[in-house]
Structures are given as C-alpha cells and as structure tokens.
Design a protein that fits this description.
heterodimer; A: 597 residues; Glutaredoxin; Rossmann fold; Ubiquitin-like (UB roll); 5 domains; 5-stranded mixed β-sheet; B: 124 residues; alpha+beta; 5 helices; 4 strands; elongated; binds flavin mononucleotide; binds iron/sulfur cluster; binds FE2/S2 (inorganic) cluster
C-alpha cells in the first residue's frame, strides 16, 4: 500500500524538552511492530505554536490533533488510531474554554488556529525541516527562481515597496525602501545580514521559523542579495538556539547541494552563499550596528547613525539587516504578488505579525494574526483568556522596550502606529498577559532589571540612569518610596529616552512610563498606604488570622518563623514582627482563615 | 539547480508526498477498520482505495479509516462523503468493488446502488 497516513510529531524546542524526540522514535517502533511501516510515515516538524499543550502530534489525512502526548500513549495511539481507525480520546485535543471542553477537535477546527493567518509560519509544523524536498513541495525556491529569471533587481525592490512589508524586528522600517537605499550605493561587495539574535525575553518566533522552515529564510536572503547586488549573506544567531543552528546549517548545506546557493543559481549568472555567525546572547547585539561590530569580531556596542548600514555596514560595505520573520514573508510576497500582501492588514501596517503569547493566558504559544486584529481577539479568542477565572489586568507588548496596555485598550486594532500611540510598541512580538495577581510596580521592576543588566555601558544616561530608576523602584516595592520618587522616576525616564544613543536606552523607560500612566493608583498605594494591592511585594504584606479560625494549631506547628501563637480551639494570632511572609500558613489552613492584607 | 524546470520536477514529486497534509474539499472515503472490519478483510480494501486514488491522481480525495461502523455483519463497510457532507454507506465491499466505486461514484458522481447498505440489507 502507498503511504496512507502521516504522523507529524512536533520537534520544536518546546516539545523537544518534553521528550518529543523519544515520542517520535516510539511511533517508529510501534508502527513497525504493527507492520504498518510501509503505509504510515512518521515525520518530525518544527513548532506548531501551541507549545503549552505539547508535545503535539497530528495525524494526517484525518487531521487528528493530539496534545500532551506522553511516551506511554504512543502504543495506544498506534494500535487504536493507526491500526483500527479509532481516535484515542484521552489525548485528543480539547479546547480550553468550558463550553467546548467536551468536544474533540480536529486540527482545522482548533480555535487557537481559526483566527490566525499563517504566512511567516506557513510551513512551521507542516514540513520536515531536514527535508529540502518537502520545502520545495510547499513552493520553496520558486520565488527565487522567478526573481532570477523574470525580474530585474529594480522590479524586485518595486514589488517589495508596493507590498508595504515593514521590519518585524522592532523598528518597523519599510523593507523595500531599505533594500532600495542599499541597492543605490555602488560597491565591489555588499552584504545581506539576517538578524536572528532574538533577545526579547519570552520571544521565540524567529527561533521557531528557523527550526521549522529554515529554507524560507535562506531563499529570502538570496532574493535580497539579488535585489541589492550582494553575493554573500550572514545569519547572526544566538548560540543558545542549538536546534535552530543545527537545522539552519543543514538546510544551507542542502541548498548548496541542490545548487540553490552557490554559483550561477538557475543559470542566471547570480552567485550567493550564506554563513552562520554565532552570538553570545547579549540583548544589545540585536541592535544592528552592535550586531555588525560583533560579526567583525569587535565588542558588540552600538555606534552612531548615520552612516546607516545601507551606506557603511559590515566591513564598511553597504549592507542590509533584516529580521528572520521579515525575511520569511518575502518569498510569499513574490509568489502571490504585492497586491495580495497589501490587501491584508491595516492602512500603514500590511500583512501579519507573529506574537509569542505568554504570561497569565490559557493558550501560551506562537500566534500569527493579520495586522488590525484587536488585542481582545488575540487574548480571548486565540489565547483563551486568563486561567482560573482571574480578571485580566494588562498586556505588555514589545518586551522590555514596550509598554503595558490595559482593559480599556483591548479593542485597539494591533498595528505599528496604534501601539506607539498608546505608549507601547510592536517590538519583536512578545506579548505578556497579566492578571489581577500581577503587581504593576513589580512588572516595571522586572523589565528594568533586564535592561540594567543588558545595557552595554557606552552612554551614561542609559548606564547610570536606568540603575537609578531601578533603585527607586526597589525602594517603592519595599514600602520606602515617597511621592517625590515618582516625579524623579518620570524625569529620569524622559531624560534617558532623550539622551541615549541606541534603541535599548531610548526605550528602556517605556515599561515604567506606561505603568505610571495607566496604573498610577498602584504606585501611590505602595508609596502612601504602604500596601501592594496585588499582594506581590512581600515587604508590604501583612498576614492576619480572621475569626474563621477554628484553632486547629496546624499553622502554628508549621510556621518556619515561630510567628504564630494560640491555644487549641482558640483563634490564633500572627506576630508581624516575626513573620517572614513565606505564605505557607495561608495555603495550609483548612478553613482559609488566614488572609493577606 | 540550473533551471526552473528542474525545480518544478522536484516540486511535483514532493507535492504528492505532502498532499496528505493539505485540507481537501472533494470526496472523503472512510473505511471501517475496527477488529470486525479487519477480520472481514477491510485492510486490503483500504489499501486498494489508497493505491487507486493515487494512481488516478485524484488529488482532492481523502482516504481514511474509522473504527467500527456498527454493521459488523456486513463488513467491510465503506462510507463515501461528498463535498457537501452527504453520506453514502456501502457494505460488503471487497477489493474487486473498489474500482467500480471510484469510477462510478467518485469520478462519475453516481452512487453504486447495488452495493449500498440499504440494498444489501434489504436483500438479506
Ligand atoms: C537593543 C536592541 C535590540 C534589538 N534586538 C533585535 C533582535 O533581537 N532581532 C531583530 O531582528 N532586531 C532587533 N533589533 C532591531 C535591529 O536593530 C534592526 O532594526 C532590525 O534587525 C532590522 O530588521 P527589520 O527591518 O527586518 O526589522 C534590536 C534593536 C535594539 C535597539
Ligand atoms: S543606550 Fe545603553 S545599550 Fe545603547 S549604546 Fe547607550 S549604553 Fe549602550
Ligand atoms: S490553620 Fe487555620 S484554622 Fe488552624 S489554627 Fe491556623 S488559622 Fe486557625
Ligand atoms: S507567612 Fe510564613 S512566617 Fe508568616 S506566619 Fe505564615 S507561616 Fe509563619
Ligand atoms: S514546540 Fe511543539 S508546539 Fe511549539
């Protein structure tokens, strides 16, 4: 019998960490033992996006979607589903929302995917990233062939400009224009650089594209090379992404073998090759001038612009730098036409954007949505809302450079300009959801902690200013802040934004400014009432026993600080001077009699 | 890679391999494959459908299996759904019948009445 079914096992980093490699091997063994190995293929793919429910397995052509698959489930799925055609219900995907809980969903019906439009992620979870033929079967390298045989470089640039694609690495600069600026500069050598540094904490869309569909990036770099007149490309990727590095390296070699990289591609006379450069994982190395310095072997520090990389880039030669996700869009734009691409999205932001949805949300994972989708649709329809019935409080977009948006912003259509107007930014696509149990002062402290660590130290406002801001925030979370501190924070923030050299410093104060603007009450509660309304900042919490106490003595016996006193069957009492706020008594009390104030 | 034609050839070969993974809007053939069906010879029937659909390049047809269809006495049972979801149930389908069902029903659009469950049941 010909191959009648294919089992796709997710091999993204998320699922690999929960043993998906062994699961794939177990499928191979079981299918063989059942004598089905001629008719059923087991294929390892890149990330499906729903990492929260991983390891993920999809059986085609039925499109049955299995989640949380364990090694022990494999034998059952094989004997029930693959042999007898009965869906193995215990692991079949069910929606996170209550009404849908009982229904088994096939891949095409899963709510998480329904509202998505997968362009950059079109092949992630669909193909085996180690098999160039599968990529070609999904149209890889067709666009490169079309450019080299039908279009002049100027025509390619013209298509990119009309498509309206903007940089997905954070800045949102129009890609076609960037290419045009570089193409105009005459030089004996030019370079195409792919920025796969992805330093934003919690973001992993670039990693997933490289793990799931490396050929889309290789192809796009060659197209960019043709457009600007470069014959060499570099992918700058952090060494912490070993799976992505391995797959990209393998894909580059396969492309060379097929003559899709190298000399005289498609007999057009155009030469192009790609090398990988590993970064050590400093956030600032994602900034383009720092990245170029790092490839050149210098310390990864930003420099003044101009000159822009398009004029003087790598080794002083005209270069373009594009983000992974930006590049992944390029081949589809060439194949489907700029008219198609520019029909998706909003007036000034075309196409889609991938977000790494995380924090207090039911379906964490990667989502790709058309620009103009509202935050509400992403958080509720795709993300399933906050877990455990908690109330939504805020969403941070743009990672450490972005800002917190609140419930009143939920109906905002997502695009570059709208997010900036609200004091946040698109950034590279981190989207962290917070619920009532998140303290916004603490959130601001978290992001600032990150930027203080990552500041390269070249300019004083960023190096010293962010440290002073962090000190003040820490003071506030300890209940030692004053109202004056809030004013100082704001002044420092505006000064740092104005006086810093690179985007890191210029955007570092955003989380503080946006939380101050949207959650000023919460800052004031810390400063004036010495309380943390969300119950997060430990020094500001008091543990109190209420009259619900039945005097069982359990808390007294278990308190690590001997802070609780009381007799059997009498209400107990916590000595605030002794209490170290570990919280264990609250969880242990059978009557829920201990509350945090 | 020297020409687009070369790329096209690879693409066509690979496309049939990944065709299983793309959603289709044509006929869907479902073969009952629980223990009773397998004993009654459903496996060769499934194989015949898969092979013939591929041989005839019927790109838009999905062939899958399903558990017991509840007609154990009349196995192998095969269901054919058209694009609108209308179901035809065939009973006692053997390898020899597969070509007829494909030619008449899936290509021609006409139900093979004498093999339908109702007709076979009525005859017993
Ligand atoms: C501190 C800092 C970190 C950055 N990190 C990244 C990154 O990890 N990945 C990325 O693509 N761009 C990053 N950028 C943006 C790049 O400087 C550059 O704008 C981008 O790679 C251009 O590609 P695009 O136009 O395709 O977005 C960062 C910028 C700054 C200021
Ligand atoms: S703003 Fe900060 S990270 Fe950027 S160059 Fe100055 S010190 Fe370095
Ligand atoms: S555990 Fe609860 S009920 Fe028991 S003594 Fe402590 S507060 Fe009272
Ligand atoms: S929070 Fe910890 S230290 Fe404080 S009273 Fe409860 S158990 Fe003791
Ligand atoms: S890594 Fe498996 S779904 Fe993301």
């Amino acid at each position: 019998m010909l191959v009648r079914a294919q089992v796709l096992v997710c091999g993204g980093t998320g699922c690999l960490s929960s043993k998906s490699k062994q699961i794939k091997e177990a499928f191979e063994e079981n299918v063989k033992a059942l004598g089905l190995d001629n008719e059923i293929q087991i294929i390892q793919t890149g990330c499906f996006g729903l990492c929260e429910r991983g390891p993920i397995v999809i059986v085609y052509p039925d499109q049955t979607f299995y989640s949380h698959v364990a090694i022990d489930d494999v034998a059952k799925i094989c004997s029930e589903h693959l042999l007898k055609g009965r869906i193995y219900e215990p692991k079949a995907y069910k929606e996170a929302t209550e009404e849908e809980l009982a229904k088994i969903k096939s891949f095409g019906e899963v709510g998480f995917y329904n509202k998505q439009l997968r362009i950059a992620l079109r092949n992630c979870g669909m193909i085996n990233p180690f098999d160039i033929n599968e990529a070609i079967g999904r149209n890889a390298y067709q666009a490169l062939g079309k450019c080299l045989t039908e279009y002049t470089p100027e025509q390619v640039i013209d298509i990119m400009k009309k498509a309206g694609l903007r940089g997905r690495g954070g800045g949102g600069f129009p890609t076609g224009l960037k290419w045009e600026l570089c193409a105009k500069n005459q030089a004996d050598q030019k370079y195409v650089i792919c920025n796969a540094d992805e330093g934003d904490p919690g973001a992993f869309m670039d990693r997933s594209v490289l793990e799931g569909d490396p050929h889309s990036v290789i192809e796009a770099m060659a197209i960019a090379g043709y457009a600007i007149g470069a014959t060499m490309g570099y992918v700058y990727i952090r060494a912490e992404y070993p799976v992505a590095v391995e797959r990209l390296q393998y894909a580059i070699e396969q492309a060379r073998e097929y003559g899709l990289l190298g000399k005289d591609i498609f007999g057009s006379g155009f030469d192009f090759d790609i090398d990988i450069r590993l970064g050590a994982g400093a956030f600032v190395c994602g900034e383009e001038t720092a990245l170029i310095a790092s490839i050149e072997g210098e310390r990864g520090m930003p420099r003044n612009k101009p000159p822009f990389p398009a004029q003087k880039g790598l080794w002083g030669k005209p270069s373009i730098i594009n983000n992974v996700e930006t590049l992944a869009n390029v081949p589809v734009i060439i194949l489907n036409g700029w008219e198609w691409f520019s029909s998706i999205g909003t007036e000034k932001s075309k196409g889609t954007k991938v977000f790494a949805l995380g924090g207090k949300i039911k379906n964490t994972g990667l989502v790709e949505i058309p620009m103009g989708t509202t935050l509400r649709e992403v958080i509720y329809d795709i993300g399933g809302g906050c877990p455990n019935g908690k109330a939504f409080k805020a969403v941070q977009t743009g990672g450490p450079s972005g800002g917190c948006l609140t419930a009143k912003h939920l109906d905002t259509p997502i695009d570059y300009d709208n997010l900036i107007a609200l004091g946040s930014m698109m950034g590279s696509g981190g989207m962290i959801v917070m619920d009532e149990n998140n303290c916004m002062v603490d959130v601001a402290r978290f992001f600032l902690d990150f930027t203080v660590d990552e500041s390269c130290g070249k300019c004083t406002p960023c190096r010293e200013g962010t440290k002073r801001m962090l000190e003040i925030l820490k003071k506030i979370t300890k209940g030692e802040g004053t109202m004056e501190d809030l004013t100082t924070l704001e002044n420092l923030a505006l000064m740092i934004k104005d006086a810093s050299l690179c985007g890191l410093g210029q955007s570092a104060p955003n989380p503080v400014l946006s939380t101050l603007a949207n959650f000023r009450d919460e800052y004031v509660a810390h400063v004036v009432d010495k309380k943390c309304p969300a119950g997060v900042c430990k020094p500001l919490l008091t543990f109190v026993v209420t009259d619900q106490c039945i005097g069982c003595t359990k808390c007294k016996r278990n308190c690590p600080a001997d802070a609780i006193s009381g007799e059997l069957r009498q209400q107990h009492f916590i000595d605030p001077a002794k209490c170290i706020k570990c919280g264990s008594c609250v969880k242990g009390c059978p009557k829920n009699a201990i509350v945090v104030q | 890679m020297k020409s687009l034609a070369e790329l096209k050839k690879i693409r066509e070969e690979a496309a049939s391999k990944i065709n299983l993974r793309t959603a289709k809007d044509g006929y869907r053939v479902v073969v009952g494959m629980a223990t009773c069906g397998i004993t009654a010879g459903a496996r060769p029937v499934l194989a015949a459908f898969v092979d013939q659909v591929a041989a005839k390049n019927l790109d838009n047809v999905t062939v899958t299996q399903v558990g017991c269809l509840g007609e154990c006495a009349l196995e192998p049972v095969v269901e054919v759904f058209d694009a609108q979801g209308n179901r035809t149930t065939y009973a006692e389908v053997h390898v020899a019948d597969v070509e007829t069902i494909i030619e008449q029903h899936i290509i021609g659009g006409n139900v093979v009445t004498e093999k339908t469950l109702e007709v076979i049941k009525a005859a017993k």
